């Protein structure tokens, strides 16, 4: 899986992101010198975790034949500061009439989404420079 970010000339910090055939925009708020045409990279990280959690939950429910109704996942993200870890608060909203057993299992599944597992695991980076 590859994502490529390219700067939009003359547009502050706006970048066009390509992932397969999809196009996204990342930017910074005007207060930080951007043009606020899209979420900033840290907001995209929170969005990635929220969407992965929701999709994983719904895929599991579908495989089980469970009608879970309306599902929403909210993620609040606080980057690490000196002496404190990065924090993600994940709030899963499910219908109140869903059986307790299903709610408990779905919460376990949320913690197994690929993005969640990546963030909690050991991460390695391989940076290199290519001249164009």
Low-confidence blocks of residues: none
What's the helix-strand series?
Answer: EEEHEEHH
Q: Mean of the pLDDT scores?
A: 94
Rg, nearest Å: 18 Å
Name some characteristics of this structure.
single chain, 132 residues, alpha+beta, GMP Synthetase, Chain A, domain 3, three-stranded antiparallel beta sheet, two-stranded antiparallel sheet, 3 helices, 5 strands, 22% strand, elongated
Structure description:
By secondary structure, the chain is α+β, with helices and mostly antiparallel strands. The protein folds into 2 domains: 3-32, no CATH class; 41-120, GMP Synthetase, Chain A, domain 3, CATH 3.30.300. It contains 3 helices and 5 strands; from the N terminus they run E-E-E-H-E-E-H-H. The protein has helices at residues 41-64, 100-110, 114-120; strands at residues 3-7, 15-19, 22-26, 72-78, 87-93. Helix 1 crosses helix 2. The longest helix has 24 residues, at 41-64. The model has no long low-confidence stretch (mean pLDDT 94).
């Amino acid at each position: 899986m590859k994502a490529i970010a390219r700067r939009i000339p003359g547009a502050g910090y706006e970048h066009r992101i390509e992932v397969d055939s999809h196009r996204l925009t990342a930017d910074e708020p005007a207060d930080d010198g951007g043009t606020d045409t899209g979420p900033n990279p840290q907001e995209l990280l929170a969005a990635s975790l929220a969407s992965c959690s929701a999709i994983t939950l719904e895929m599991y429910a579908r495989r089980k034949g469970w009608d879970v109704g309306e599902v929403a996942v909210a993620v609040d993200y606080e980057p690490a500061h000196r002496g404190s870890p990065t924090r993600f608060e994940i709030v899963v909203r499910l219908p109140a009439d869903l059986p307790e057993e299903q709610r408990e299992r779905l919460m376990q599944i949320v913690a197994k989404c690929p993005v969640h597992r990546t963030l909690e695991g050991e991460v390695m980076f391989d940076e290199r420079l290519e001249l164009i």
